[in-house]
Write a structure and sequence with these properties.
2 domains, single chain, disordered C terminus, Endonuclease III, domain 1, 12 helices, Endonuclease Iii, domain 2, about 220 residues, binds iron/sulfur cluster, about 60% helix, mainly alpha
Length: about 220
């Protein structure tokens, strides 16, 4: 893909979603980490509903360890995989207290060592909480990047991230991450991408293919 085409894609999604931002509610890096951990296989909307109460009750790592795990499970039970997530949260809080005095570390390599914190979560935290440019590849970023040809269909999540980092100028990494998420969440959706009104149809092989393939119609018989 040419640099001109990449620029066209970045400028177009910037025009469509100039104010794209992290939609997980949080007021500090620790809360953001908990919110991202909870968001695996769950919508941001549901996480925000749960954290509205959760963050009132638990302010510090010590607070999460002061209750039995069953109580924490109950507090996040509306979220998928809540038992595992409760376990990860308490392990994460224990490690934060043991190694970092209860303060979330800022470095990516330290963050990925925390229980329940993978590469994607660490990228979200360093970019949103500490101002370090990063591209976190979630399901939307992966799908959109592959559809638009910014990555190849068989690429792993890590390969998608590496390709995006090569193609997108570093100062634009974090904002591009947010814009790709908004683009995937509200326009190029998994099931019903809006190809017919997409300003990127001219550069999108996937979209052109979809526009050529007539939708299956229900038989009247
Ligand atoms: Fe997504 Fe369709 Fe636009 Fe391609 S043309 S980016 S598949 S909405």
């Amino acid at each position: 893909m040419t640099a001109k085409k990449v620029r066209h894609i970045l400028d177009t999604i910037a025009t469509m979603f100039p104010d794209a931002h992290c939609e997980l509610h949080h007021s500090n890096p620790f809360e953001l980490t908990i919110a991202v951990l909870l968001s695996a296989q769950c919508t941001d909307e549901t996480v925000n509903k749960v954290t509205a109460d959760l963050f009132q009750k638990y302010k510090t790592p010590a607070d999460y360890l002061a209750v039995p795990i069953e109580e924490l499970e109950q507090d996040i039970r509306r979220i998928g995989l809540y038992r595992n997530k409760a376990k990860h949260i308490q392990s994460l809080c224990r490690l934060l207290l043991e190694r970092y005095d209860g303060i979330l570390p800022e470095k990516h390599e330290q963050l990925v060592e925390l229980p329940g914190v993978g590469r994607k979560t660490a990228n979200v935290v360093v970019s949103n909480a500490f101002g370090v440019p990063a591209i976190a590849v979630d399901t939307h970023v992966e799908r959109v990047s592959k559809r638009l040809g910014l990555a190849d269909p068989d690429d792993t999540v890590l390969q998608v991230e590496q390709k995006l980092m090569k193609k997108v100028p570093k100062p634009e990494w974090t904002q591009t991450h947010h814009r790709l998420i908004f683009f995937g969440r509200y326009h190029c959706k998994a099931q019903n991408p809006q190809c017919g009104i997409c300003p990127l149809l001219d550069v999108c092989g996937e979209g052109k293919g979809r526009m050529k393939t007539p939708k299956k119609r229900k038989s009247k018989e």
